[in-house]
Amino acid sequence: MEKLALAADHGGFELKEILKEFIAGLGGYELNDLGVYAAEPVDYPKYGRLAAEAVASGQADRGIIFCGTGIGISIAANKLQGIRAANCTSEFMAEMSRRHNDANILALGGRIVEPELAKKIVRVWLDTPFDGGRHARRVRQIEP
Ligand code: RB5
Asked: 69 alpha carbon to ligand 1 midpoint, in Å?
């Protein structure tokens, strides 16, 4: 089973809950929800870091993170070595973030992406492999 870490701030809490149920329904994924567990205001950097640490340490294979826009939490996650968090608003972005960037974290904005579109984005992101080849060379150059 592929292990997925989930994390959100209050801006992404509701979408995280919807997608947690959706992904559980797909089967084949072990979900580790790192919070937040209620819609009260919290600071997104903590939750971006929690998911990024889970992926960087190998506790999780990939992660999906949520805040209001997907921006702040993806910036926070991307501070960790080896993390490639992609904030996606379309299925095409999700596909390309996997094929070309080998994104290991998907970020979604709870105030940007409607739940039905978010489900499609997540499905494409989970199902799309990395193309490798010339893209592997480019991805390697990202690391400091
Ligand atoms: C919280 O209000 C909001 O700033 C946060 O969820 C996120 O959108 C930040 O980038």
From this structure: 6
Task: Tell me the pLDDT tens digit for each residue of 50-83.
Answer: 999 999 999 999 999 999 999 999 999 999 999 9
**CB of 125 closer than 6 angstroms to any ligand 1 atom:** no
Domains of the chain, earliest start first: 2-142 (3.40.1400.10)
Output helix, strand, coil percentages for the chain, rounded to the nearest 5: 50, 20, 35
pTM for this one? 0.98
Would you say the CB of residue 75 lies under 6 angstroms from ligand 1? no
Element spanning 5, H or E: strand 2-8
The pair phi, psi for residue 31, each rounded to 5°, is: -100, 135
Residues 6+ apart with CB under 8 A from 59: 3, 5, 32, 53
